[in-house]
Amino acid sequence: MERSKTASRISWITLVANLILTILKAIIGITTGSLVVLSDAAHSASDAFSTVLVLLGIHIAKQPPDEKHPYGHGRAETIVTKIIALMLIVVGLNFAYTAFKAIWQGSARSPGISALWISVVSIIAKEIMYQYTYKVGKEIDSTALVADAWHHRSDAISSVAALLGVFAARLGYPIFDPLMTFIVAFILIKVGWNMTFTVIDELMDAQVEDQVLEEIEEIILSISGVCTLKNLKVHKYGADHHVDCTITVPSHYDVAEGHDLSHQVEDKIRDEFITINHVDIHIEPHYSSEQDSDY
Question: Backbone phi, then psi, for 282, in 5-degree steps?
Fold first, then answer.
């Protein structure tokens, strides 16, 4: 519950900030005729929309398991991350098309001085939002918040491109306004593309990093009564992790002793990894010819 409250608080703060930036950029982009500032305004608008999706995903993810979703609703955050990634790609492609059309038609022009100032403000604000959101997202292990943080960072970088484009245009090179829009588009597409493949791994239950596997293996094998460990599998499920493994126990153990040992293993894993909320343990009798560990 505390995790969802923290994530929601961060999201509401960044949502308000993004809406303010969007309105200011849109007004200045229209009044000064700057294509790159307008594209940056659209980027901020998509950033605000992605934050709304994060809030929705967090709300759904915190719902308890039910009959239809016995493993809970944690994948809601993963789905939200996927939508944000695809949205970044679509917005980037649209910017690239708009910039190409402006260059082709020769409609680029020199923007007003206010376009410079809004770009500077945007760079500072978006970088602060990125640092704050990314830090909290990592602390509470929220892929949706981390994805939203990278959206903030891409917006900050696009504002740098907007600043350079406006500056060059005001020096007498208006072609730089749409050219910098291409840079913004590329950043959006690249960030969205990378996020998409990260989410695909999670949706396909990819194995976690070797370091995590080694730490869990060490915990399991440290428990008295566990002879060997086999088939250790760990995958992310939203903000949580699921563990599946086989342990061997002395062949003289009866069912009750094996059952009690499996609970000891599960409790120990949960104590060491707060993000693990599901542990499935299969028990087999141990024979001396078996290897010490195989996963």
Answer: -105, 135
